[in-house]
Amino acid sequence: MPTAARDIPERNGIDTLNRSVSNSFDLSASLSTSPSATFHSPPTSFSKQASASAKQLKPFQTADVKVLLLENVNQTGQSILKKQGYQVEAMKSSLAEHELIEKIKDVHVIGIRSKTQLTANVLKHAKNLIVIGCFCIGTNQVDLKYAAETGICVFNSPFSNSRSVAELMIGEIIALARQFTDRSLELHKGVWNKVSTGCWEVRGKTLGIVGYGHVGSQLSVLAESMGMHVIYYDVVNLMGMGTSRQVASLDDLLQGADFVTLHVPETDETKNMISTAQIEKMRNGAYLINASRGTIVDIPALIKAMQSGKIAGAALDVYPNEPGGNGENFHNQLNDFTEDLRNLKNIILTPHIGGSTEEAQSAIGVEVAEALVNYVNFGTTTQAVNMPEVTLRSLTLEEPNHVRVIYIHKNVPGVLRRVNEILGDHNVDKQMTDSRGDVAYLMADISSVNVSEIKDLYQSLEDLGSRIRTRVLY
Ligand SMILES: NC(=O)C1=CN([C@@H]2O[C@H](COP(=O)(O)OP(=O)(O)OC[C@H]3O[C@@H](n4cnc5c(N)ncnc54)[C@H](O)[C@@H]3O)[C@@H](O)[C@H]2O)C=CC1
Ligand SMILES: O=C(O)CCC(=O)C(=O)O
User: What highest taxon heads this organism's lineage (predicted)?
Assistant: First the structure.
C-alpha cells in the first residue's frame, strides 16, 4: 500500500499534533515521523474492511498501541496483533486484582479469557483502555455496562469453542454412565474391579439440555446420533435439532431426563439455578453435568445428593472460584467444599477445559484479534457485546483528506443535531449511528479536512456534555 496517504501531518508542517490512540490529544507530545509508523498493509483476513484500495486508518503510531494479553491467549491471536505493530505483552496466567490495576493503567487493549475479572473497580483505573477482547464465549467476567458507559468496547468469540464443549459433554455422559474414570483410577492404584452394577448404555436414555444455544444445540445433534432422546429447556422458544423437543419449564426437564447438562450464561437468574429443590425433582440415579459457570450449581447441595445416592454421577468443569493459572492448587481455600468433592465417587472434575482444544483456541485467537484490530484501526463495532454495531465501508486512497470521526455518547435527545453542527463545516460523506441502552455510537467519514482542523474538530466534540469518548481516525 502506498504511504502517501499517511504523510499528511508532515506535508502540512503540523508537528505538534500527537496522534494518540486514546481519547485525548496530548499536545505536549510530539508527532513521530517514524516511517514505519506511516502505514501497514492490512492482513488479507481484513478483506472486508480493507479492500485493495482501502486506506488503513490510523490516528496514532501502531507501535504506540499497548496490548496486554492474559491467560495464555493463543499464538494465532498474538501474531495478528503483533503484525499490526502493536506492543504486545502476553502472560500465561490471570492477575490478582491489585496487579491487574497496575498493569491496566497503561494499556489500550486487553485480552482475557474466563478468569480475569474486569470489574468497574479495575476498569476505572484503565484510563487509556479502548477495547477488551474476551478470547472465549462467556463475558460475565467483565462489567459490560460500566465498560459501555465509559466508552470501552467489548468483543468475544460467540461460538468458536461450542463444538469442543459439546464433544466433552458426550465423553462425560458415557464416562459417567460406565463409571470408567473410577475404574481407571482404581486400576492406576493396582485394583482390579470389574463391575456392571449401575453401569448403563446411553442409547435410549434421555438427555435434558438446559440452555439450547450454540453449545446446547451442538450437543443435541451429537446425543441423538448416539440414540439418546433429547429434551431441552430455554427461556427463548427455539426450534429443536432433529427430533429433540423443547419443554415448558425447568421442572419438566429435570423430571424427564436421565442426564442433565447445563449451558446457560451466568446471570442473576441462573445463579444457583440447580440447588436442593431442583435436585430433588431430578430422577433417582440421574446424572448432572455443568460446563457453563461455577455459580450455576449449588455445589454443596450436589455433594449431599451424591452422598445420598440421589445423583449417580456428576461432571464439573467450572467452579465459583478457580485458580489463576496452571500449577496452582485447587483446595478448600478457594472453595470450601473442595475436599468433599474430591472424595466423591463417579464425579469427573476438570479444570475449565470445555473450550480447550487446539481447534477452538486457534479459531478464537483469530476471531477476537481481528475484531480488536478492526476496532482499533477502523472503529468498527460489528459483533460487539456491549456497544451498538456500527460500521462504514473503508476510506480509500483516492480520498486523502478524509477523516473518520467516532463519537461515543450518552443516548440523549439532541446530540445528533449538535454533532452535525460541528461536522457541518465539512462534507459528511457517510455516517452511521446506533444506540444500545444508554450508549450511542456515531461514525462519520468527512472529507476536505485539513489536518490543522482535526484538533478543533476533536475538541468541539469533546466539549459536548453528551460525550463519552471521541476518536478521530485519519
Ligand atoms: N466450560 C467451558 O470451557 C465453556 C463454558 N461456556 C459457558 O457456556 C455458556 C453457554 O454457551 P453457549 O451455548 O455458547 O451460549 P449461548 O448464548 O449460545 O446459549 C445460551 C442459551 O441459554 C439460554 N438461557 C439464558 N438464560 C437462561 C435461563 N435462565 N434459563 C434457560 N435458558 C437460558 C439462552 O436463551 C441461550 O439459548 C456460556 O455462557 C459460557 O458461560 C462456553 C464455552 C466454553
Ligand atoms: O477457555 C477459556 O478460558 C474459557 C472458556 C469459557 O468458559 C468460555 O468460552 O466462556
Answer: Eukaryota
The reply to whether ligand 2 has any atom less than 6 angstroms from the CB of 355 is: yes
pTM for the full predicted model: 0.89
Neighbouring-strand partners of residue 26: none
Q: H helices of 49-143, where?
A: 75-83, 97-104, 120-123
Q: Are 408 and 154 in contact (CB under 8 A)?
A: no
Q: Report whether pLDDT(8) > 50.
A: no
Q: What whole-number distance in Å separates Cα of residue 270 and Cα of residue 157?
A: 21
Q: Please name the residue that has the C-alpha cell 477488551.
A: 132
C-alpha distances (whole Å) from 125 to each of 91, 92, 151, 159, 230 are 20, 22, 14, 31, 47
Indicate the pLDDT class of residue 54, thresholds 50, 70 and 90: low
Sign of CA dihedral 283, 164, 342, 297: negative
Name the β-bridge partners of 290: 262, 316
Cα of 204 from ligand 2 centre, angstroms:
31
The C-alpha cell at 50 is 480493507
C-alpha of residue 162 to centroid of ligand 1, in Å: 10
Q: 234 C-alpha vs ligand 1 centroid, how far in Å?
A: 10
Give the catalytic positions in this structure. 293, 322, 352
- According to DSSP, the β-strands at 206-210 and 259-262 are parallel
Q: Is 356 in the pocket of ligand 2 (CB under 6 A)?
A: yes
DSSP code of residue 387: S
Torsion 101-106-109-112 (CA) sign: negative
Task: State whether the beta carbon of 261 lies less than 6 angstroms from ligand 2.
Answer: no
Judged by its nearest atom, the ligand closest to the C-alpha of residue 367 is 2
E strand or H helix at 467, and its extent?
strand 467-473
Residue pLDDT, tens place only, 386-421: 999 999 998 887 777 889 999 999 999 999 999 999
Residue 44 amino acid letter:
T
Estimate to the nearest angstrom the gap between the alpha carbon of 46 and the chain centroid.
20
User: Which atom of ligand 2 is closest in space to residue 292's alpha carbon?
Assistant: 7
* Sign of the dihedral through C-alpha 160, 162, 163, 167: positive
Nearest partner of 92 among 109, 75, 117, judged by Cα: 75
177-236: per-residue pLDDT in tens?
999 999 999 999 999 999 999 999 999 999 999 999 999 999 999 999 999 999 999 999
On whether the CB atoms of residues 70 and 78 are closer than 8 A, the answer is no
